[in-house]
Amino acid sequence: MKKFLLVCLSTLAFTAYTEECAPKNIILFIGDGMGLSQVTAGKIEKGTLEMERCPVTGLVTTWSASSFVTDSAAAATALSTGVKTRNGMLGESPDGNPLKNVTEYAEEMGKSTGVAVSCSLTHATPAGFIVHVPSRKMNPEIAAQIAASGIDVLFGGGLDYFKPCLPELQKKMPVVFSTEEFRNLGTPTNAAAILYPVHPPWSTDRELSLKELTQKAIQILSQDKDGFFLMVEGSQIDWAGHQNDATNLINEVVDFDTAVGAGLDFAEKNGQTLVIVTADHETGGFAVLDGSLQDHNITKTGFCSDHHSATMVPLFAYGPGSSVFSGIHDNTDVGKTMIQFIRASE
Ligand SMILES: [Zn+2]
Question: Which of 32, 71, 102, 246 reaches 20 to 30 Å from 334, CA-CA?
């Protein structure tokens, strides 16, 4: 592990890395709408965040091809393909051509792939790592493309959209629908857990934490000797931002951060895993204005918007290849770099 880091530390540019740096596995954690103030709020609540175990920090610009302020679809496309597109589009260029994503590159390299999220699996962020459609609103088509894809782990909600393609999915992998079935999954080579008709409730009302989903996803995917790519999304930080709901915002950051801890636990033991923690955009123009560090309590917050903002988002990285993420980069650089690493890890 130390040897990998030393090699990587001499790397200054995103494109100039040595093959020794290329990680075998990549776990990308996306806190939807998680700007720096959201992370700050989580830190005050928890004291020390799991994210702080990452030695590398950076900042990421998020504008889309069509807008100063991105939506989650264009941001997911940038992070998954390394190409900017128009707001609302998933896995397609602004002129409507399909863009190959990191999941597809990983599959091509014989790696296992998965997504684990706290929203419908058809929602913009997870869909942006799997499908190619001109509009994020095409839920039935998105579900059909997901079911037809080569992805190995699908944990989230969205059963209403998956009903027509369940037989196709069930031919490929065990599909479970409840907490109990999920906990009895064991370690098949692939699996889907579609746990809610559409979206899960807030983290405080979820039976299965994002951490539990992440641990099971890693357990399944890490059986592949060729390695894996996993995207985990804390989806509802964004929704709390839209609603200017600081309480649920903090709860969602904490739930997300706890899942990050599970990824880092695996990466520490494994030594060949790059963990990246970032966001697709900031939501709410959120600020932490007063509170008590001793009591882990925030007494005053502010929102200057009920939509996304254009402010840069933080990035945290751990493991082989992580040093290239230090500094300020564009969201497309994250996608391009992950794809380079995947293609170099033969
Ligand atoms: Zn949003």
Answer: 246
Q: Taking the model in full, what pTM does it have?
A: 0.94
Q: What is the Å distance from ligand 1's center to 238 Cα?
A: 5
Give percent of the chain with pLDDT exceeding 90: 93
Domain assignment present for 331: yes
72 as an active site residue: the answer is yes
Interval between CA 17 and ligand 1 midpoint (Å): 34
Q: How far is the CA of 88 from the centre of ligand 1 (A)?
A: 11
Report residue 139 as tokens: 């839920």
Nearest alpha carbon to residue 53 among 41, 43, 62, 38: 43
Query: Residue 177's domain is classified under what CATH number?
Result: 3.40.720.10
198 Cα: distance to centroid of ligand 1 (angstroms): 16
Q: What domain range includes position 230?
A: 2-7+22-291+306-344
CB-based contact 158:125 (threshold 8 Å) = no
Ion ligand 1: residues, CB < 5 A: 238
Number of domains in the chain: 1
pLDDT tens digits, one per residue of 21-63: 789 999 999 999 999 999 999 999 999 999 999 999 999 999 9
Q: Give the C-alpha separation, 83 to 342, whole Å.
A: 17
